Every structure is written in structure tokens, then in C-alpha cells.
């Protein structure tokens, strides 16, 4: 590798770190809101990916267990800068909330952050960001009546059938519908992205993922080493959860409260803290780990719960990249991409809209934030700051 190529690679990694860290500091509102922030930054602004590649990646990560938004961020980092790019993207997006939650665990466990007024303002920011992302994706991914109908099916299905596997089921049905409706699809794929990881490396990652699922419980039962038991609980939680961060929180409660590792009161305090910080909700694990064993426990918990996400995305993406270029699969992906739009609209209504737009003033302020983002074209971090200040001011009215 020449000096020039090394410098270019370092520049790319630093750029990924800078952008992902800024997103990690400003992406409030949960996993669906994160996808909106990613769309704004990576697709609209920086054009690191096109709409179709982004939608394909979102669909894959919705299908896989684990934190979907974090997996999307890792995937974008890998496509931009290889495995190191994925690691850097993950660190930038995740570390701010890990630090915040470890600090909460150490000094702020008694603070009821869920009731802070500026949090409501940040939820209104999420409304504006997600609405903007949905409009942009719908325009590109549902241009005809067939795909609009698939999106409608996905919307209705995920709203009325709210289980951990509803998104997976809807995506499967939409893929079959797309395959049948667009099987004569011959238009070439104009996406120019190659995934810089071999299928051999991907197969190794998938093998490690399944091996740890089997080996960790065996080690847990055969040894008395406490950190192995903790690692197993977090790894299993990160491996078997469909539906994102909101689903993993009750699962973690079942893993750690009955065992006495953390009290119910401390768990609930951390639950409020997790809602208050930007970034992925899976970083709630850092809080639990820090309560049990300080900052070292927080880092161990974070590594354990996110390791499955890394192994799955690195193990799946090379095969996904091959399939999405197969002419026989393109029709199915057209259906899946349309379904993603419907799924995002469904998540936009519940939980984002139903938990945020409670009064006319909420809708009015969300409309202002949307206009500042879409028409005035202010950067997302300005919208976040405006939302937080607006939330404080609204509480005084």
C-alpha cells in the first residue's frame, strides 16, 4: 500500500468517525428516527449511498435480529471504509450514549430524566426528521400503484400485527409479492457499490455468531466465573431480539433483575436515562454493566450486546450484495423496498407520533421543525438544538 493510499484511507476513516460521532451526539428519538438521520446525512447530503442501496440495507437489517439502526450504521461504514470503517462508524455513533449512560449509572441514578421538558422537544425533532425521510424514500421506492399497494399492506400489517416477528413476516410476504409482480424486471442495477469483505470472511463471522450462542451457555454452567455469565446474558439478548431497542429493554430486565444483579429501582432509573440520550437504545446495556461493575462492566456489557450485530451484518452483507444484483431477485427487492416505506410509516405513527403529538402546540412546533429542515435546509444538529430549546420554552407556557 502506497503512502498516498494510506493517507486516503486514514482520511476516509476520520471522515466516517466525524460524521458518525456527530450523529451519535444528535440522533434522538429511537431506531426509526435514527434511520431518518442516516438517510438525511448519508444519502441526501453526502451521497455515500443511493436510495435503493440504502433501502436494501435497511430491509436486511430489519430482517436480522439485533439493533437495526446500529447495523445500518455499521453497514454504511463497512461499505465506505471496509471492516475498520464499520468499527469506526459504530464507535462514533455508540460511544456518546455509552459515556452518558455510564455517567448516569455512576452519579445520576436518582434523576428522573424521563420527565425533563427538553426531552419532549427532541421527540418533536424525531417527528420532523422521520417524516422527511419517509417522504424522500416513498418518492423513489413507491413510484407506481403496485408498490404503493405493497407499502399500504406493510403499513396496515405492522400496525395491526404488532409482534416481534411482524416486520420479518411483512418483509417476506412483500418479497414474494415483488417477485411475482416484477419477475420480468430487466432494468439494470445502477448501484455502483461493492462490499469490501469476502464471502469466506462472512462465513467465518456467521460461524462465530452461532458458535458463541452454543458455547457461552455451556461455559456459564460449567464455570463459576461471573463475567462469563454476564457476557452470556448480554450476548444472548443482542442475538435473539427482533424489533429493535424497545424490545430488548424488557428482555434485559428478565435477565438481570430476578438474578439480583441490579435492583428494580436502578433498572427503571436507567430506563429513563436510556430514553433521554441520543444513539441506540441497546447502549442501555452500558448502564446495567456500570451499575454492576463500574465503567469496566459498562464496556464489557456494550461489547457483548453489540457483538452479535457486528457478526450478523458482516456475515450477511456479502451475500446480500450478490443477491441484490441477481436479475431474478430484483423484483423481490422492489417489493421489499416498498414494504420498508410502509414499515417506516407505521413506526412513524406508533410509537413516534402517538407518544409525541399530544396537543395542538406539539403539532405546530413539529411543523416548524419540519419546515426548517426541509425548506430552509438547516442542518440536523441545528434542528436538534432548536427542538431542545423549544421543549423547554413549551413547558413554561
From TrEMBL:
<dbReference type="Pfam" id="PF02417">
    <property type="entry name" value="Chromate_transp"/>
</dbReference>
<dbReference type="GO" id="GO:0015109">
    <property type="term" value="F:chromate transmembrane transporter activity"/>
</dbReference>
<feature type="transmembrane region" description="Helical">
    <location>
        <begin position="201"/>
        <end position="219"/>
    </location>
</feature>
<keyword id="KW-0472">Membrane</keyword>
<comment type="similarity">
    <text>Belongs to the chromate ion transporter (CHR) (TC 2.A.51) family.</text>
</comment>
<feature type="transmembrane region" description="Helical">
    <location>
        <begin position="117"/>
        <end position="138"/>
    </location>
</feature>
<feature type="transmembrane region" description="Helical">
    <location>
        <begin position="226"/>
        <end position="249"/>
    </location>
</feature>
<feature type="transmembrane region" description="Helical">
    <location>
        <begin position="269"/>
        <end position="292"/>
    </location>
</feature>
<feature type="transmembrane region" description="Helical">
    <location>
        <begin position="356"/>
        <end position="374"/>
    </location>
</feature>
<keyword id="KW-1133">Transmembrane helix</keyword>
<feature type="transmembrane region" description="Helical">
    <location>
        <begin position="12"/>
        <end position="37"/>
    </location>
</feature>
<dbReference type="InterPro" id="IPR003370">
    <property type="entry name" value="Chromate_transpt"/>
</dbReference>
<dbReference type="InterPro" id="IPR014047">
    <property type="entry name" value="Chr_Tranpt_l_chain"/>
</dbReference>
<keyword id="KW-1003">Cell membrane</keyword>
<feature type="transmembrane region" description="Helical">
    <location>
        <begin position="332"/>
        <end position="349"/>
    </location>
</feature>
<feature type="transmembrane region" description="Helical">
    <location>
        <begin position="90"/>
        <end position="111"/>
    </location>
</feature>
<dbReference type="GO" id="GO:0005886">
    <property type="term" value="C:plasma membrane"/>
</dbReference>
<keyword id="KW-0812">Transmembrane</keyword>
<feature type="transmembrane region" description="Helical">
    <location>
        <begin position="150"/>
        <end position="181"/>
    </location>
</feature>
<feature type="transmembrane region" description="Helical">
    <location>
        <begin position="299"/>
        <end position="320"/>
    </location>
</feature>
<protein>
    <submittedName>
        <fullName>ChrA protein</fullName>
    </submittedName>
</protein>
Amino acid at each position: 500500500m502506497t503512502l498516498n493510499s494510506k493517507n486516503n484511507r486514514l482520511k476516509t476513516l476520520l471522515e466516517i468517525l466525524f460524521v458518525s460521532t456527530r450523529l451519535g451526539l444528535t440522533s434522538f428519538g429511537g431506531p426509526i428516527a435514527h434511520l431518518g438521520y442516516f438517510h438525511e446525512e448519508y444519502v441526501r447530503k453526502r451521497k455515500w449511498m443511493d436510495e435503493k442501496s440504502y433501502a436494501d440495507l435497511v430491509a436486511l437489517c430489519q430482517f436480522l435480529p439485533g439493533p437495526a439502526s446500529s447495523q445500518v450504521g455499521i453497514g454504511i461504514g463497512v461499505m465506505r471504509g471496509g471492516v475498520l470503517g464499520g468499527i469506526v462508524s459504530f464507535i462514533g455513533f455508540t460511544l456518546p450514549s455509552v459515556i452518558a449512560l455510564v455517567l448516569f449509572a455512576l452519579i445520576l441514578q436518582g434523576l428522573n430524566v424521563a420527565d425533563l421538558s427538553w426531552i419532549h422537544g427532541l421527540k418533536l425533532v424525531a417527528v420532523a426528521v422521520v417524516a422527511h425521510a419517509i417522504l424522500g424514500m416513498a418518492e423513489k421506492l413507491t413510484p407506481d400503484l403496485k408498490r404503493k399497494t405493497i407499502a399500504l399492506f406493510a403499513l396496515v400489517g405492522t400496525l395491526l400485527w404488532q409482534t416481534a416477528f411482524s416486520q420479518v413476516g411483512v418483509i417476506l410476504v412483500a418479497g414474494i409479492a415483488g417477485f411475482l409482480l416484477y419477475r420480468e424486471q430487466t432494468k439494470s442495477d445502477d448501484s455502483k457499490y461493492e462490499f469490501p469483505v469476502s464471502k469466506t470472511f462472512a462465513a467465518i463471522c456467521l460461524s462465530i455468531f452461532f458458535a458463541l450462542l452454543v458455547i457461552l451457555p455451556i461455559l456459564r454452567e460449567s464455570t463459576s466465573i461471573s463475567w462469563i455469565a454476564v457476557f452470556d446474558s448480554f450476548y444472548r439478548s443482542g442475538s435473539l431480539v427482533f424489533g429493535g431497542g424497545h424490545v430488548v429493554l424488557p428482555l434485559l430486565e428478565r435477565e438481570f433483575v430476578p438474578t439480583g444483579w441490579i435492583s428494580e429501582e436502578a433498572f427503571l432509573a436507567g430506563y429513563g436515562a436510556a430514553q433521554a440520550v441520543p444513539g441506540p437504545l441497546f447502549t442501555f446495556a452500558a448502564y446495567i454493566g456500570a451499575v454492576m461493575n463500574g465503567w469496566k462492566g459498562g464496556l464489557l456489557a456494550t461489547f457483548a450486546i453489540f457483538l452479535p450485530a457486528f457478526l450478523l451484518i458482516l456475515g450477511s452483507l456479502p451475500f446480500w450484495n450478490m443477491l441484490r444484483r441477481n436479475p431474478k431477485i430484483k423484483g423481490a427487492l422492489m417489493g421489499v423496498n416498498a414494504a420498508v416505506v410502509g414499515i417506516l410509516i407505521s413506526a412513524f405513527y406508533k410509537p413516534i407520533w402517538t407518544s409525541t403529538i399530544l396537543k395542538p402546540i406539539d403539532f405546530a412546533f413539529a411543523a416548524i421543525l419540519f419546515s426548517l429542515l426541509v425548506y430552509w435546509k438547516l442542518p440536523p444538529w441545528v434542528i436538534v438544538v432548536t427542538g431542545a430549546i423549544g421543549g423547554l420554552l413549551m413547558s413554561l407556557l
